[in-house]
Amino acid sequence: MGGNQSLPKITPQDKAILDLKLQRDKLKQYQKKIQAVLDREHAIAKAQMAAGHKDRALIALRRRKYQQSLLGKTDEQLENLEQLVSTIEFSLVEVSVLHGLKQGNEVLKEIHKEMNVESVEKLLEETAEAREYQREIGKMLSNNLTLEDEEAVQKELLALQQDITAEATTELELPNVPAAEPVARTSEEPEPALVKKVAIAG
Question: GO:BP terms for this protein (predicted)?
Fold first, then answer.
């Protein structure tokens, strides 16, 4: 019972494509038979001509010509079947794409419902009210302060800015370069004391 549920569902479109492909295969088999008849009639006509039976060779060639016309018709039918199968398969792809587009449009509609104009306007109003409330609080506090208090607040604000700038500058300072090690003198270079003695002696 569970095995039947796992089988893929065969749609009417699948059956139609399968039937068309079966017809195509039958036409191809029929073409092979006609080709075999053409080859046989050609061999008969050749043998009759070699035997001197011109009229029999002519009949064989006429039968061959008729079979060739049938082969031409089967070529046309085969081409029509191939085009029909391709058209149906492409149409199924188009239907699948349209279904995907439809689902995408439904998702967009749901998103637009959540982001309607009223919701956006309400959010903007709430944001504007919050900013206005903040301005009123600041204005009220500044009106309750004396001029000296306001100056003190401005100085404190300036000091905070300077502290932040100093901390940022400290973090950006480059590390100290290590002191250079004394260069070893070569045997050719004279000792400083010897240089002084020579200078005095001179």
Answer: late endosome to vacuole transport via multivesicular body sorting pathway; protein transport; vesicle budding from membrane
